[in-house]
Design brief:
The chain has 669 residues and is α+β, with helices and mostly antiparallel strands. Strands 2-1-3-4-5 form a five-stranded parallel sheet, sandwiched between helices. A five-stranded antiparallel sheet has the order 7-6-10-9-8. A five-stranded antiparallel sheet has the order 12-11-15-14-13, with helices on both faces. The radius of gyration is 49 Å and the shape is elongated.
Length: 669
């Protein structure tokens, strides 16, 4: 016994003689005693807030309204004081009464003093053990609920959430009651970031880490890294998930917190060490197995023994901001040394946890060997990508969420004329769009893009015209895509100069619809336009007319002057007619020396007037060395009952009548 602070024992016994004998024995062994003779007095003494007894030695059978059992029940409702019963017999009935209350056993009256003292000391030890266990459980529960690492416990078979700490509820934006009603796929991302498999399936297999996008309750997306490990809990095998938000940086910031039964079974290394001595208080199995040390060996070690780059002094300096409350967490990379001397890279997450005025350091250690290899590979890929983008023949441009240029490769400078120094940080469309109305429309469209990453041309390839720095327009092909970076939508455009291709396409198109000699429409294109005009007339009921003419005695020109002269005549006639007809008319070479004109929304009389005018112009053409040339004309107007064939046959008949009537005249129907 500690003589300076003796334990106080309250003896409840209605026999003063027996009570005095018991008190004398206990005083002999250094206990401080007090005697009461009734259950009522025992309750009053026990509930005294100034000085309660450390242990009660309670007689079961007491005089008065309260026996020992009833008095014990009342006391235990208000205070946790160990109670050891005194009884004259150990009958079944007495034993049942003792079991009905949380007692610390019993002592038979009249036993040897050594037995009595042994029972009392045993009761004190049981009580102290109970208090230690209770305190440890409260510390565990407090650390789990108040730590800022999101943790979730799930049933892998049913896919239901079994538990979630405060950090998890805060991160996802749901109340704990709501989360406990949710399926795991309603919280965890649908698929891994590489799309290889469903997140829920990956986590059941202890995927470490599982990286995926997750949508929070408010609709916001977060990129997270999830570690999972199986654990036996309440007779079931569950999965323990630790969720790290890595949205702001690809390098994961992993934190882990104790949660009672999960500490030892976690696949991650977890350490608890003393803030002054730095000696380890507890190290989980994952750490022990990786390091190769036993639990006993680690009890005599500190974190400095595992980190060759630190001295005791430099490590204490590292911890100083946590002890002063200047920082809540310290994250750093270091090397860990195993018992066999081998080293491995590790990411350390350090926190100072406080409970009941006691502080301990908690460290989560993550082996980042694989991550280092991935970072090295990623760096090499980025270097390759950078080389490709710099040497690409197409312009590659990136705009941030405010429309400012953040990337501009050499090809962009060559195609659009602006140097990187001129354009980086500027609003690209202020340079490219001269019409302010179009610019305002673009700004409205960009507002939608910066919120949703969507737009009319996002994900598409479109052809458009833009303006070079020197002012001339160029034809380009634009492929636009959206990428989300740090919660903002960026636009990436690939621009290809297609000016030469467009000119070539235009040339091919012109060649496909024009007669190569006269440079007017050819017969095939004219037939397409005639078919479209008939369909238009059916819709708006505005008719059209046709003029067909043929050069008179053209064979004589070829025979007398040669085919070159004949070609010159055909081109001259075509130029003369082309200079007179409207832009809405279609003038084509029908074949040989025969021509045809489609006159939309033109009556027969107006068409005849035009034909007569053209006849006169042709007959008065000056063709040096050849003489006069005349032409015969047939004219007709489209009728409701006509088809393409009938209207062409009728105008051809009119041309035939003009030739039969002596040529150089106009006939119509």
């Amino acid at each position: 016994m500690n003589a300076s602070c003796p334990k106080k024992v309250l003896i409840v016994e209605d026999s003063n003689f027996n009570a005095r004998i018991t008190a004398d024995i206990m005083n002999k062994y250094g206990y401080e005693t007090e005697i009461v003779t009734s259950g009522k007095e025992a309750v009053e003494k026990a509930l005294n807030n100034i000085k309660s007894p450390d242990l009660i030695l309670m007689d079961i059978e007491l005089k008065g309204t309260l026996d020992g059992i009833d008095a014990a029940r009342i006391i235990q409702q208000h205070k946790d004081i160990p109670i050891l019963f005194l009884t004259a017999n150990a009958s079944k009935e007495i034993m049942e009464k003792i079991k009905s209350v949380s007692a610390y056993g019993y002592v038979l009256k009249g036993v040897d003093e050594y037995v009595l003292i042994s029972q009392i000391e045993m009761a004190f030890k049981l009580y102290e053990a109970k208090m230690q266990l209770k305190k440890r459980e409260e510390l565990f529960r407090n650390m789990f609920e108040n730590h800022d690492v999101a943790m979730i416990l799930i049933d892998p078979q049913a896919g239901r959430i079994i538990d979630a700490n405060k950090a998890a509820c805060h991160f996802y934006g749901y109340s704990k009651e709501t989360m406990l009603q949710m399926d795991i796929e309603a919280v965890i991302g649908v698929s891994t970031i590489d799309g290889g498999q469903r997140c829920s399936e990956a986590l059941k297999k202890s995927c470490n880490p599982c990286i995926c996008f997750q949508r929070l309750a408010n609709g916001e997306e977060k990129l997270v890294e999830i570690y999972s490990s199986p654990v036996d809990y309440q007779g079931r095998t569950l999965m323990h998930l630790i969720v790290f938000d890595i949205t702001e940086q690809w390098k994961a910031k992993r934190e882990l917190e104790f949660y009672k039964n999960l500490f030892e079974d976690s696949l991650n290394e977890i350490y608890i060490f003393h803030p002054q001595t730095l000696k380890f208080i507890a190290v989980n199995r994952g750490a022990r197995e990786n390091l190769g040390y036993t639990e006993k060996e680690l009890k005599e070690m500190t974190p400095v023994d595992l980190k060759p780059e630190f001295t005791l002094q430099s490590f204490k300096e590292l911890l100083e901001p946590l002890l002063k409350g200047e920082q809540k967490q310290i994250i750093f990379d270091t090397m860990h040394r195993r018992k066999d001397g081998s080293l491995y890279p590790a990411e350390i997450h350090l926190e100072l946890v406080e409970f009941d005025k006691e502080k301990v350091f908690v460290a989560l250690v993550i082996d980042i060997t694989e991550r280092r290899e991935m970072e090295k590979e990623l760096k090499e890929r980025n270097e390759i990508l950078s080389t490709i983008m710099e040497s690409a023949g197409d312009a590659i441009i990136m705009l941030d969420d405010s429309g400012k240029v953040t990337f501009w490769n050499p090809a962009a400078e060559r195609i659009l004329g602006y140097s990187k120094e001129e354009i980086i940080g500027k609003d690209l469309h202020m340079f490219m769009i001269q019409d302010m109305r179009l610019y305002e429309a673009y700004r409205e469209a960009f507002k939608k893009f910066r919120l949703t990453g969507k737009g009319n041309v996002v994900g598409k390839t479109v052809e458009m015209k833009t303006r070079h720095k020197n002012g001339h327009e160029i034809d380009v092909e634009l492929s636009l895509s959206a990428v989300r970076i740090k919660d903002s939508w960026y636009a990436i455009g690939i621009i290809r100069d297609i000016s030469e291709r467009k000119r070539f396409e235009e040339l091919l198109y012109r060649q496909s619809i024009t007669d190569p000699l006269t440079n007017i429409y050819n017969r095939r294109f004219f037939m397409q336009m005639l078919e479209q005009e008939i369909e238009r007339v059916k819709r708006n009921k505005k008719s059209f007319s046709l003029i067909m003419f043929d050069l008179d005695h053209f064979k004589n020109v070829n025979d007398r002057f040669g085919h070159a002269a004949g070609d010159m005549v055909l081109k001259s006639v075509a130029d003369t007619v082309k200079g007179r007809v409207r832009k809405t008319d279609y003038f084509a070479r029908w074949g040989g020396e025969e021509f045809i004109i489609l006159l939309p929304e033109t009556s027969l009389n107006n068409a005849v007037e035009l034909a007569e005018e053209l006849r006169k112009q042709i007959s008065t053409m000056e063709l040096q060395g050849i003489g006069d040339v005349t032409a015969s004309f047939g004219v007709t107007e489209y009728r409701d009952t006509d088809t393409i064939d009938t209207v062409l046959i009728r105008v051809d008949n009119m041309l035939y009548e003009a030739k039969s009537a002596g040529r150089n005249c106009v006939k119509s129907e």
